[in-house]
Amino acid sequence: MALYSGMVYLYKRDNMAHICIKSIILSLIFIFLAGCNKEDKLEKEIAEIPVTITIERFDKAFSKVDQKTLPALKQQYPFLFPEKYQDSFWIQKVADTLQIELANQVAKKYPDLSTLKIKLEGLLQHAKYYFPEITEPRVITITNDVDYHNKIILADDLLLIALDTYLGKDHYFYESIQEYIRRNFKSDQIIPDIATVYAKQLVSLSKSRTFLSNLVYYGKVQYLIDLFLPKYEEYTKLGYSPEQLEWVRVNEEQIWRYFIDKETLYSTDADLSPRFLYPAPFSKFDLEEIDKEAPDRIGRYIGWRIVASYMENNNVSLRQLLMMDAETIFNKSKYKPRN
Which positions, given as ranges, span the membrane (predicted)? Predict the structure, then answer.
């Protein structure tokens, strides 16, 4: 009888455990589905925002210009023809062998921009959802002598896209450019680069010169990029490869410990930004076994994590975030690195 009672007890206990596990799984599924429904509803609302753009192919028009058609092109795009240059300069430029090859390579890589147009409209819909004051820009594609410092230019509702800086990282035009710079000279980086330009126009530079202020500045920028491009891979939004992002994730706790141990957060050492925030071959910890493995701009990822943690743990609006100082954001973020 005791044995029977014990078996009944074990059965009930196991059955209860099974029910508890099942309840937990069902709860997690419910939470997941609720989150998905919320995201789907948001995306549907964003998709209804009217945005229509036309991409003007100045790059193609300029490659075909001659003495006769130049005046009309200058009248259509006066901002692309500085007055200090006479017409003869532009005619000579069009006939230049390198310019011809550049135009040919761009035309070959980008015969049609319909996909880019759709993606850009999606980006603008998301940007306008969060910031309705954003207006639809006049979008113009150009070639710019591979000036990678000005791949995307946004000014006075003009959006200029230098297609000659997106021909692919291994293109022969980029042979003299360092690998860490040209690795993002690819077509799928155009939209993230445009999102970055929009985000930087919305985030004010801090007057503080501390490393923490710079971390949070880039964190805010990255947070906006993430909102503008929710369906893009995280590594693409960071300008990383999948392997680089994985390295940062795996080593996040060690990175944070280094920043704390070296007392970098409230330091005003101007050398910290080039080491951890700016494009470079790698982030510079001055540790030989780490430096050549660590991707550059590692501080931007940490800043993003701090800002995302702040928004998750505080009931504040997006505009309040942009106005908030770095120290308050950090102190209230409850940020904890992944381990």
Answer: 16-36
